[in-house]
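Tip: read the tokens left to right.
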């Protein structure tokens, strides 16, 4: 439609649209080239689109996901000791298998912990088998899917939120996990991995802790540090909330997108207007041509 003079368009790209092995890179590059602009949710995504896909750098813009802060009020009250929470679909890229193994390492150290993993998905049987293999049925629980309100309550009472994301075998990975924003907004200290756009959410040792992907030993060490140090939990709670308020407030980010769309619409209208009004020279030549005069 755009190539035939039709209306312009914008496109928003998330991890699923970018990183899978089955992505048609040529088609994706063309879609971006002919768009008014392409929005994506992290600097990591933007670099990948430019460097790996070959997208027009002038078309690619970063617009972070935002969350409604009012749904996740900051909780300063006491939290249940030794409680670890994680939330997401039970799929490979969430890294839950490594969280289970990290919990096993903490139990082996003689620690008393309780981990709840909220969500459903195709990896459920594999995760249940790993919990059984490690003898963690009283420590790690797969509790199924919860409504957002119940997740918010769990974030308010848990000592730690862990999301050890990895790159899946098909190349898919989380770009900017929204659940990390929700946990930080609620003041729940976070541990995650140095992958994709996650370091743009969690500033390591400033608003949370980051470890290498697929390293359950490093994950266990990071979780132990947070669980052991009350002053660290308090600091991450405050700095994490401030980070989300500053960068990931949905009200601000929607306003940015609204301005981009308005500018794109205005440019498109001007382009179509200029195309619709022929210049004086063009008008004269058209009149001469229709009168049968040969134009040199």
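Filled-in amino acids:
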């Amino acid at each position: 439609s755009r190539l035939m003079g039709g209306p312009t368009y914008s496109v928003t790209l998330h991890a699923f649209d970018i990183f899978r092995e089955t992505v048609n890179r040529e088609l994706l590059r063309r879609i971006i080239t002919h768009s008014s602009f392409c929005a994506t949710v992290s600097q990591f995504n933007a670099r990948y689109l430019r460097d790996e896909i070959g997208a027009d750098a002038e078309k690619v813009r970063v617009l972070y996901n935002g969350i409604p802060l009012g749904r996740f009020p900051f909780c300063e009250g006491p939290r249940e000791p030794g409680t670890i929470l994680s939330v997401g679909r039970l799929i490979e890229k969430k890294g839950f298998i490594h969280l289970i193994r990290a919990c096993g390492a903490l139990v082996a150290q003689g620690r008393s912990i309780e981990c709840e993993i909220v969500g459903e998905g195709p990896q459920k049987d594999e995760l249940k088998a790993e919990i059984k293999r490690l003898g963690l049925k009283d420590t790690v629980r797969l509790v199924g899917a919860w409504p957002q309100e119940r997740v918010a309550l769990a974030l308010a009472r848990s000592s730690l939120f862990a999301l050890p994301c990895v790159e899946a075998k098909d190349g898919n990975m989380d770009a900017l996990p929204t659940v990390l924003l929700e946990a930080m907004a609620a003041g729940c200290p976070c541990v995650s991995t140095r992958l994709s756009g996650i370091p743009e959410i969690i500033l390591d040792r400033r608003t949370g802790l980051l470890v290498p992907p697929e390293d359950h030993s490093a994950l266990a060490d990071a979780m132990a540090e947070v669980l052991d140090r009350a002053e660290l939990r308090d600091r991450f709670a405050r700095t994490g909330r401030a980070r989300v308020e500053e960068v990931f407030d949905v009200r601000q980010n929607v306003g940015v997108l609204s301005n981009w769309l308005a500018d794109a619409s205005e440019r498109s209208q001007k382009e179509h207007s200029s195309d619709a009004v022929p210049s004086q020279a063009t008008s004269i030549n058209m009149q001469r041509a229709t009168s049968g005069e040969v134009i040199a």
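The beta strands are 10-13, 37-40, 60-62, 83-87, 114-118, 140-144, 160-163, 190-193, 209-211. The radius of gyration is 25 Å.
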